[in-house]
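Sharing in case it's useful to others searching the archive later.

Someone asked me privately for the predicted structure of TIGR01777 family protein, so I'm posting the question and my answer publicly. Question first, with the sequence:
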Amino acid sequence: MDVLVSGGTGFVGSALVPALCEAGHRVTVLTRQKPGRHENSEGVHYVQSLAPLREAPVDAVINLAGASMAGARWTQRYKRELLASRLETTAGLVEFFRERQAPPATLLSASAVGYYGHQGDQLLAEDAPPRPGFASDLCRQWEQTAARAEDLGVRTCYLRLGVVLDAGGGALDDMARPFRFGIANWMGSGQQWLSWVHRADVVAAILFLLDQPCLSGPFNLTAPTPVTNRELCTALRKQFTTLPPVPLPGLALRLGLGEMAGELLLSGQRVVPVALREAGFEFRFSDLDTALEAIYSKQ
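And my answer, the predicted structure tokens:
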């Protein structure tokens, strides 16, 4: 299969692209980075625009592009960047489909569990309605943009990603940094939920959805067992030697990080992957302790 991956050099994409190649797919990566950075990548073609692909075979598109939600304080300028990096790329892909004589058969388009907004302890499957908030509004617009591909007959799946954990980058590096220095903490009350997923399971789920032509719609890409922030603290303390935990005051986080702290750090979503499991997907890492042990055993 000829697969186009946008955002293929990011934390998820950098693990997905080799897995696609290993599965026998021919991969093209759409990236804003200069091609020279990847010119020695065997079996992968890198492009900086869709123009060279107008006549090229493309059977499926995996859309992972988007600036990091935790990349900077949520100023109005950065909010515009967060929106543009997702909506413009996705709209460009849909227009690319529209211009082709035969559009790709499949679009797997990233979204996030932020779609649901803050809903306390409620278990959230794919049919749960969203609550207002910047992250929720962003995800809904992102999915609505990707949904235009459905009008062209493209099978479309929306990948509502949880917090992706693995070695070598991503959110875990930031979350574990104080623990490496012997300082254990949770944020605010510690009762807010974290819907996490091991990066290996994200890659496996994407490959699974790619090969299931009967599946479409939203899929929560999260482990079956979300944890509270306090439970995350307990799990990380098993991997590091630390002093007794000290809560990080929510007020300090709000003063330092503003709106981003309120939406990403001090609230969360208790999301479960109902659609994936009903489709027959099996998670390799279903509990956080097993996932962290696997991650830190590699270091």
